[in-house]
Design brief:
The structure is a single chain. The protein is mainly alpha-helical. Helix content is 65%, strand content 10%. It is built from seven helices and two strands. Strands 1-2 form a two-stranded antiparallel sheet. Strand 1 and strand 2 form a beta hairpin. Helix 1 crosses helix 5, helix 3 packs across helix 4 and helix 5 packs across helix 6. It is elongated and about 60 Å long.
Length: 155
Amino acid sequence: MTAPSQDLDFGILLGLSYQEFVRELRENLVTEGFEDTGRSDGYVLRSLLRGPMNISELAERLEISKQGAAQIIDDMQRRGYVERRDDPDDRRAKLLYPTARGHDLVQTAKKFHRRYEQRLVRAHGAEAVAVLRTLLGVIATDEGMADPRFHAFGM
């Protein structure tokens, strides 16, 4: 008898794995007091941790419209994850910064990522996890990993 995963298309298996990872991450964030996180919060916060930027720069980094970026930032500011400050080089402009709560959210998520990987190592061994990391890196491609939306994730 084959394992159920052997019957699934490879892309479906990758997608289901990612969905389960995100489900567990969100569950963990709620447990840690971050019950109000949005889908884009991690992308935005990790981008801003590289340094402050204005809405236009963020929109370019995330490859979305300025209006879309402004809506995301308005929502994240309302929830206390980012703040706008005057740009010292341009009095008309505002720069975006993560708040202390934003920093805490990223650190909490990063801890979850490490614990998740450690759990896989305990269950399947360090070698299997190293092979999985290598394969995922090959699938992601150099071009994909150079994508500025994900570049900050190594932080």
